[in-house]
Amino acid sequence: KQIQGGKVKGKYPPQLRAFALTLHFYSPKAYCYVRQTFMNKLPASSTIRSWYSSTDGSPGFSTESLQILKIKSQAAENEGKQLYGCLMMDEMAIRKQVQWDHSARKFIGYIDYGSCIHEPEELPFAKEALVYLINGVNARWKIPVAYFLIDSLTAQERAEITRKVLDFLVPSGITIVAL
What we know:
Layout: H1 14-26, H2 28-37, H3 45-52, E1 60-61, H4 63-78, E2 84-93, E3 99-101, E4 106-108, E5 128-136, E6 142-150, H5 155-169, E7 175-178
Parallel strand pairs: 2-7
Antiparallel strand pairs: 1-6, 2-5, 3-4, 5-6
Helix pairs in contact: 1-2
Protein name: THAP domain-containing protein 9
Domain THAP9-like helix-turn-helix: 7-51
Pfam family, one: TNP-like_RNaseH_N
């Protein structure tokens, strides 16, 4: 109905927005075909990309993840349950490359611990990404909670970052039972 009425002015309705995001996520080519079929009444691909970029994906702790964990924890408490999670971490090799980020107005590709952790004076190129993820033990979900762009870390530095991640997760209400 909403598509047949003509060009959409202002905000797109939530149902249309969800449909467009889902279809574009699974197949951008199929989305372009459907958009042409409905005479360009669906949002443009650039609009969908801007919707995707509304989440802050910069290195450090993810406040969006913390909010989601709080909601899950409160929902479990309402049912009389306690949520348990396993904190997992993984290092992934990344290409040594520096790029200009227009939205953040800074160069990315150097080591970056986010705003909560002290960074060294000279910033070398990042060679790895250290990612922390919570996996539900008594529920089926996985949520990345933090990532850091690193060069290399000693065991003591890795332990300190892990401790800060655990401190960050305390307000969520989820009990971490394993690392």
